[in-house]
Amino acid sequence: MAGEAQCLSYAGCNFLRQRLVLSTLSGRPLKIRKIRAKEEDPGLRDFEASFIRLIDKVTNGSRIEINQTGTTLYYQPGLLCGGSLEHDCSPSRSIGYYLESLLCLAPFMKHPLKIVLKGVTNDQVDPSVDVLKATALPLLKKFGIDGENLEIKINRRGMPPKGGGEILFACPVRKVLQPIQFTDPGKIKRIRGTAYSVRVSPQMANRMVESARSILNKFLPDIYIYTDHMKGVNSG
């Protein structure tokens, strides 16, 4: 009875990742009912099932139960173990969908996490790997998570619908985070960006840079946009 009382209970498919991540960090079991129960295609989607498999890989001793229709999920978290892993992400969502949650879990692993994620690196739905590399890593460093072992490296780019991309995410272990006060956003002093292209002429990326600079130079002089053109096996 005590275990049932501590089990968190939710309904619906909203905030599935956040609920699983917070359940893993707090160690409290979780039960989610009525996952798209009234839709024509009820239950978990393929990208959500892939995310659950990823959570199972980075933990040890997790207990996951899903009913036949996929509308009810029970999750009892195990220990965050980390280590060297590899995961094939569903091409329905980009790698950023999975990487966002790993950024929250990685510092609290038993061993430093080094994982290769394969799938779509850039799409119009989720934050791209480039965005997370430029924004999430500096934020983690403010919390005291830094060093040579913290990196996001794009080995291959993959576009929808088939993907084919590959990235490496590595993060050291930090049991205690430094508290920060980050309330003043400040002013924009410089702009950095990346223009990527795959399986097209390299001139396409250069034209994107010229078009972006023609607009942004009206506001700021300090602008640098990198070009990243991949071809052959590196283009997914």
TrEMBL record:
Gene3D superfamilies documented for this protein: RNA 3'-terminal phosphate cyclase domain
Q: Where is the RNA 3'-terminal phosphate cyclase domain?
A: 10-198
One Gene Ontology BP term is: endonucleolytic cleavage of tricistronic rRNA transcript (SSU-rRNA, 5.8S rRNA, LSU-rRNA)
Q: Where is the signal peptide?
A: none
Q: Which GO terms describe its cellular component?
A: nucleolus
**Recorded GO MF terms:** RNA endonuclease activity
One Pfam family in the UniProt entry: RTC
Q: Which InterPro entries match?
A: RNA3'_phos_cyclase_dom, RNA3'_phos_cyclase_dom_sf, RNA3'_term_phos_cyc, RNA3'_term_phos_cyc_type_2, RNA3'_term_phos_cycl-like_CS, RNA3'P_cycl/enolpyr_Trfase_a/b
The name on file for this protein is: RCL1 protein
> Which organism does this sequence originate in?
Balaeniceps rex (Shoebill)
Q: What high-level taxonomic lineage is stated for the organism?
A: Eukaryota, Metazoa, Chordata, Craniata, Vertebrata
